[in-house]
Amino acid sequence: MRELKQLFSYFGPYRKDLLIGSLLVLIETSFELIIPVLMADLLDVGVAARDVPYILNKGIQMAICALLALLTGLLYARFAARAAYGFGARLRDAEYEKVQTYSFSNLDHFDTASLITRITTDVNVMQNALTGGLRPMVRGPVMLIMGIGLSIWMNAKLSLVFFVCSPILALILFFIVRKIAPMYGKLQKTVDRVNSVVQENLTAIRAVKAFVREDYEAEKFDQVNNELLQTSERTFHYAVLNLPAFQFTMYAAAVLILWFGGNMILGGELQVGDLTGFLSYVLQVMNALMMISNVFLLLTRSLASAKRISETLNQTPDIRSPESPVTQVQNGSIDFDNVSFKYKTDAEEYALQHVDLHIPAGQTVGIIGGTGSSKSSLVQLIPRLYDASTGAVSVGNTDVRAYDLKTLRDAVGIVLQKNVLFSGTIRDNLRWGNPDASDEQLREACRVACADEFIKQMPNGLDTDLSQGGVNLSGGQKQRLCIARTLLKQPKILILDDCTSAVDTATESHIRRELAKQKDMTKLIIAQRITSVMDADRILILEDGKIHADGTHDQLLQSDSIYKEIYASQMKGGAAGGTEF
Fold first, then answer.
1. Which of 14, 94, 141, 253 could form a disulfide with 86 if both were Cys (CB 3.0 to 4.6 A apart)?
2. What CATH code is assigned to 2-188+231-314?
3. Are 541 and 368 in contact (CB under 8 A)?
4. pLDDT tens digits, 225-277
5. Domain ranges of the chain
6. Could you give the CA distance from residue 281 to residue 273 in angstroms, rounded to a whole number?
């Protein structure tokens, strides 16, 4: 319930609609409860005395009550819809905004498919609980209290039936809720797994088709889909027991009332109209109890979703700006002071160990090493995508943890190993680097990154639409657009994380020549090809998360066996000319 209380704070301006809707349900219920009293008078007085004007008068009163109940019901529907869907929209906004504040380490705690389910399906469960539960949540208790009160007023002896049936119904509800409460949490996790398989398949659909693995993927989906089916069947198998159990109890109560009431009529203790009105209250009270039970079932399911949503909203970002942040980066110098890093605090081994490094502003540094040597981990500490576990990382002679995050990341341009483009035009994607960039600036960045060559050949140039993920571009074209986008930031530090692997050597050489002209920009180039880094001011060789060697191309070629081995294997013993930075 604590989670529900927290989420209800997101109603905001829609709290007024919720209160008005609840009030309208109360009014509607009151009108409906008046009708049986009027009906009893109509039968016992009007019909018994054959008083037609009295019958018409009571009939008109009943019709007015019915119309007013209909009107308030329609108004309730309007306010309830506004409250429910407004609440859902605000909840989705809050979750989405919260996810944007997550650091990489926070995102590592959640599966992508799970986050999607929490923002969509779980919020829909909360909305449905509100639209389907608000009316019975207000109507049920009101009808129960007023119905029992009026039935006692009409005939206290017959009302004892309620006190027999109510504990039975409460016991049934208790066992049903107890059984299905943990099932709803499992159900939502199963939905996560289905979404995960679908997302993975659609993202990698080209690889699936290239390896002719459609049947395998179909079988994998069938497995999780059947698991969802079985979990849903088990959950709702118990949930739907609520209806027949309540109906059996309700109609059993009606039969008992007719039996005892009929005997009381024969004994002169009760009138037919009173029994008819009383029976109406019995059905209303039983319906109220059924409504309350359905509310409990909705709450049980919504609690599972509320817990998952609260987990998303209550996740504290591991990386945040300090209270009094530094808002200006002086230069592009980089310092690592005895830095060690591991992705999880409980991990046994460090990804980086005891890294000491000083890179002056404007220097070009190449970084090479085998797969898993933590090259990407090293550079991701610079813009605080992760924080160092021990030691300190400084940019511009200031600890990165002292900077405002936006300031720091604006000063550090990083082209990640995985190239990401978004739906929209080329112009839209490039302006991620600088929203206010002019066409001239866009064209210049594209020229430096050699992206202008293929953009000119496109029918709409910069206004060419890109499919999701840029699938209508080759790998090399995507890499060049990502480089151009980062250059538009005009960063003090440029990090290229193996982002020219799909580019031919001539194009890469041109890009390196253009980047060499950016004298005030510190450049870190992670690469697998030795030609990409051999003309850098210095080259770092990483091995097992440690700096194995540090020097120029000539120095390492003379002194380091690993570098000589890489050079020999890639250059095949020939002298390779490179273009200097």
1. 14
2. 1.20.1560.10
3. yes
4. 998 888 888 887 777 777 787 777 777 777 877 887 788 878 777 777 777 76
5. 2-188+231-314, 334-571
6. 12
